[in-house]
Amino acid sequence: MSDSREDRVGTGIQGLDEMLRGGLIAGRPYVVSGTTGSGKTTLGIQFLHQGVKNGERSLLVAVDEPPAEIRENFRTLGWDVGKIRILDVHPATKAFSKRVSLVEVAAQRTVGVLREMGGGGRAEAVKQAAPEISIQSLQLMLKQEFQDAHYDRLVIDSLNSLRKLSETDEDPSSPIMSLLRFISESSVTALVITDLPDPTELEPEIFICRGEIRLHKRLISNKIDRWVTIEKFRGSAHDTVPRPVTISETGLSVDRSKKIPKNSIRALQAFTYSAR
Ligand SMILES: Nc1ncnc2c1ncn2[C@@H]1O[C@H](COP(=O)(O)OP(=O)(O)OP(=O)(O)O)[C@@H](O)[C@H]1O
Ligand SMILES: [Mg+2]
């Protein structure tokens, strides 16, 4: 069991690091789950930005939002997001932009057929061709990235969008599993962002990833209350109590000294049970 501080990776959120007894264990993948607007992307960018501040290399796989929008949103927080490398897997870019995205490049490398498709048929061809190959292409791209440079931190935002992007008749769980295994065997500390896991399914990210940080959001008395729980953290002691979260112009913060109010606990319990 590893509980020493030297192999811990700070998330960039002090209260969360305290909940994790010093931070995440280096070189392992973790799930960050939560409903929409619960702060998953903010947490992910904060984690990558912390890496940049430490002089580490940070990589974001952007599926949910186009990179330009991410940079714009987080630059307003005064974060140096320019130093975060972003792989653009956003479907709008991929299907409609004239600019050849990295996914298309990887796809061309992989199958070598898109090059022959010219003119107006190209965008449509990419739209049709990419879904079958996108997860494998992403894995190839990451392999290439990791060969070219050492990365300390990786965020995939999000796995659900990646799944949707690759909707075919075939079950995407096998390429997802392969991608997660690849990430897990790389020495990068990774956050895999997902919606709340389906309690009736044994999603591969839940058993491959070494821990799960879950963000909760609930409207209580006309006010949005936010909490965080550590659902699982292999190889480490951790806080088992839900702690309050705030999102402000400095990003996410977790107050480890505070317990959540009783009425919020009741709502959180109801929420957690229904989510399980
Ligand atoms: N400066 C700020 N002050 C207060 N709240 C903010 C601020 N910036 C962002 N937020 C809140 O954080 C939320 C954004 O969280 P974020 O985009 O990280 O959520 P998410 O879990 O990634 O959502 P999605 O599932 O839709 O991708 C906003 O909806 C807003 O409520
Ligand atoms: Mg998001």
Total count of domains: 1
Helix/strand structural class? alpha/beta
- Which CATH class applies here? Alpha Beta
Largest sheet: 9 strands, mixed
Number of helices: 10
Structure description:
With 276 residues, the chain is of the alpha/beta class. The protein has one domain: P-loop containing nucleotide triphosphate hydrolases (Rossmann fold, 3-Layer(aba) Sandwich). The protein is built from ten helices and eleven strands. The strands form two sheets. A nine-stranded mixed beta sheet has the order 5-4-6-7-3-8-9-10-11. A two-stranded antiparallel ribbon has the order 1-2. Strand 4 (58-62), helix 3 (67-75) and strand 5 (85-88) form a beta-alpha-beta unit. The longest helix has 28 residues, at 121-148. The model is unreliable at 94-133 (pLDDT under 50). The structure holds adenosine-5'-triphosphate and magnesium ion. The site of magnesium ion has 4 residues, from helix 2. Adenosine-5'-triphosphate is lined by residues 34, 36-42, 64, 247-249.
